[in-house]
Amino acid sequence: MLDADLPLWQDVLRLVAAAIGGAVVGIERESRDKPAGLRTHMLVSVGAAAVMLLSHDLCREAIAIAESAGGEIRFDPLRTVAGVIGGIGFLGAGSIFKSQGDVEGLTTAATIWMAGAIGLTCGAGRWNIAVTTVVLALVILSLIGWAERSVLKTKPRSD
């Protein structure tokens, strides 16, 4: 069930939260001098949140129009999620390249995709999922990378 029309402050809160979530992941990439850094991750996350908010509004308006006309409407809000994730996949693919037999940029591509997921969850107001996703991203990027280098004595395969 869709909530009633969200007040402006709640839309702004969701967009700002998406920017912060994207920034947290983007700062880690920026600190490692990766091709997609702070601004890219923030923009992807905020864009995904904006699309989710727009989808919410359009679905709610379509339901209201159908109800006032005495009709019925069918919609699938998950198409919005699928479209955003698919589109971000293309953006992430641009950060992957092959150099001297090594594939590089996979982790950055994954973080771009994750920034989109963070934005979608913030746009949907699912704070528990958004915060958990950001925390897990930091753990994976920091601690797992450290474990690969220090404990396993291997270079992370794709950063």
TrEMBL record:
Keyword Nuclease: no
Keywords: Cell membrane, Membrane, Transmembrane, Transmembrane helix
Top-rank taxon, per record: Bacteria
CC terms in the record's Gene Ontology section: plasma membrane
The MgtC/SapB/SrpB/YhiD N-terminal domain, residue ranges: 15-149
Principal place of residence: membrane
Pfam family, one: MgtC
InterPro entries: MgtC/SapB/SrpB/YhiD_fam, MgtC_SapB_SrpB_YhiD_N
Transmembrane segments: 127-147
Subcellular location: Cell membrane
Membrane topology type: Multi-pass membrane protein
Family in the record: Belongs to the MgtC/SapB family.
Descriptive protein name: Putative Mg(2+) transport ATPase
Organism field: Botrimarina colliarenosi
Organism lineage string: Bacteria, Pseudomonadati, Planctomycetota, Planctomycetia, Pirellulales
